[in-house]
Amino acid sequence: MSASVGFTKRQSDDEGASRLLERADYALYEAKEQSRGIAVLFDAGHEALIRSTRAVEQALRGIDSNKELTLAFQPQYDITHNRIVAFEALARWNSDKLGRVPPDVFIRAAERSGLMTSLTPVLLKKALEICAAWPDDIRVAFNLSARDVLSSKAVDRILEIVETSGVAPQRIEFEITETAMLTDFTQALNAIARFKRMGCRIALDDFGSGYTNFGYLNRVRVDTVKIDRSFVLELDQNDRAEKIIKSIIDLAANLGIEHVVEGVETTHELQRLQSAGAKQVQGYLFGKPMPSAEISNYLRQQYEGNLRRREAV
Ligand code: C2E
Ligand code: CA
Ligand code: CA
C-alpha cells in the first residue's frame, strides 16, 4: 500500500475550515500529479496558481470569443515526398483583460470549467474558413477536447459546422487524446464513428504519453497516430527512443495507420527519425505555428524550394 498526502498550515484566525480543506485538497492533487506516495505542503506558489487560474476562468466567462480567439497554423510535412500535407490549427487567446494567455493554460481552464464546448465551435468555424482558401490537397488538423467528444450535443454542433463549411470532410482531421477514451470509451467510440461516417479523419494525439493503450489502435479506427514529442526529446540520450518510435511506426503501418512525429527541432533528430522510417513530421524545424496570413507565403517558399531541388537533380 502507498498513500499521497496534501496538507496545509493555518496562518491566521480568519481561515475557516473550508478554506483549509480547499488548500489541503489542492496540495493532495499536486502530490498525486508529481508521483505516487509523496507529501506536499500547500505554499505561496500554489496560492498564486489558484489565484491566476481563477482570473483565467473569470476572463473566460466574459470572453468575446469571435474577437479574442484566433488560430495559428503549424505545418505537417511529408519528408518522403517533400511536401506539406496539413496544417494543425492551434488556438490563441489575446484576452481583453489579461493579454496573451498560453493555450495550455486557457484550454485546461476552459475544460475544467465546462466552457470548452462553447469555444470549440468558434475555433472550428474560423479554422474551416481559413482552410477553404488552401490548395485542395492540404488538410487541416483540429484539436478536440474530451468534453467535445463526450457530449453528443457538442458532436452534433461540430458536424453541423463541418456540413455547412463547404470544406470537404476528407480534408478535416480531428485530433483526439486518449483522455476522452479513458473517461467514457463507449461514448468516445460513438463520436468517432459519427465523425468517420461524415468522412472526416481521426488522429490519436500525444500517442505514447500518459497511459497509452495499444489496444486502442485495434478498437478505434484512427487514420493517424501522432507520436508524442517526449520520444523525440529522448533521441539524443539513448537508442531505445529510436527503437520505440520505429516500433510504433511499424505497428501503425501494419494496421494501415499513418503517423506524424511531433516536436522535431533539429536536423540531427530528423536523421534519426528517417532511419526509424518516419514519413510525416511536425515541429519547429519545418515551421513554427504561424498566423494564417503567412501561410500563402510559406507555401510559395516551399514550392520554390522544391522546384530548385528538382532542377538541381
Ligand atoms: P498539441 O496538440 O500537442 O499541439 C502541439 C504543441 O506543441 C503546440 O503548442 C505547438 O506549438 C508545440 N510544438 C510544435 N512543434 C514543436 C517543437 O518542435 N518544439 C516544441 N518545444 N514545441 C512544439 P501550443 O500551440 O502551445 O498548444 C498546446 C496544446 O494546447 C496543444 O498541444 C493542444 O493540446 C492544446 N490546444 C491548442 N489549440 C487547441 C484547440 O483549438 N482545441 C483544443 N481542444 N486544444 C487545443
Ligand atoms: Ca494536437
Ligand atoms: Ca500532440
Can you walk through the features of this model?
This protein is of the alpha/beta class. The protein has 2 domains: 54 residues, no CATH class; 248 residues, EAL domain (TIM Barrel, Alpha-Beta Barrel). It contains 14 helices and 12 strands. The strands form 2 sheets. It has an 8-stranded mixed beta barrel, surrounded by 4 helices. Helix 2 packs across helix 4 and helix 5 packs parallel to helix 7. The longest helix has 18 residues. It is globular and about 80 Å long. The structure holds ligand C2E and calcium ion (2 copies). Ligand C2E binds next to strand 4, helix 4 and strand 8. The site of one calcium ion has 4 residues, from strand 8.
Write a compact overview of the structure shown.
The chain is α/β, with parallel strands linked by helices.
The CATH topology label of the largest domain is TIM Barrel
Oligomer: single chain
Overall pLDDT? 92
Major sheet description: 8 strands, mixed, barrel
The molecules bound to the chains, other than polymers, are: ligand C2E, calcium ion
> Helix coverage percent of residues?
40-55%
Overall strand count: 12
Distance between the termini: 65 Å
Biggest sheet strand line-up = 3-4-6-7-8-9-10-11
Shape: globular
Could you state the CATH homologous superfamily of the largest domain?
EAL domain
Tell me the name of the CATH class of the largest domain.
Alpha Beta
Query: What pattern of helices and strands is seen along the backbone?
Result: EHEHHEEEHHEHHEHHEHEHHEHEEH
What is the number of helices? 14
Number of separate domains:
2
Category from helices, strands and their pairing: alpha/beta
**Radius of gyration, whole Å:** 22 Å
CATH architecture heading of the largest domain? Alpha-Beta Barrel
- Parts with pLDDT < 50 across at least 5 consecutive residues: none
Strand fraction equals 15-25%
